[in-house]
# Entry
Amino acid sequence: MRSVTIDDVGVFHVARRTCELYSVEIMSGWGRLRASNGRGRSLWYQPSIFTGSFVIGCEAEEGLIVEIQGGPPTVNVNFREKTRDLV
# Structure
């Protein structure tokens, strides 16, 4: 399991390999949040950010991209990707 905290707006390439988007925890912020795979297919979209923890559990082929629009958020993205030991 890996985790990344995002505290700015923009587009973030969180993972470069195929992984599982496990959950998203929103601690603060306002605006929109979208998670897509490396091919640009939308995996999860929240049109209005509000605090909470969301278990998603979906595969992100060829990477994981998180896009945040609006005010400065505090968001934790948890994902699982195979380590070099397992590849």
Notes: The beta strands are 2-6, 10-15, 19-28, 31-37, 42-46, 52-60, 64-70, 74-81. The mean pLDDT is 93. The longest strand covers residues 19-28.
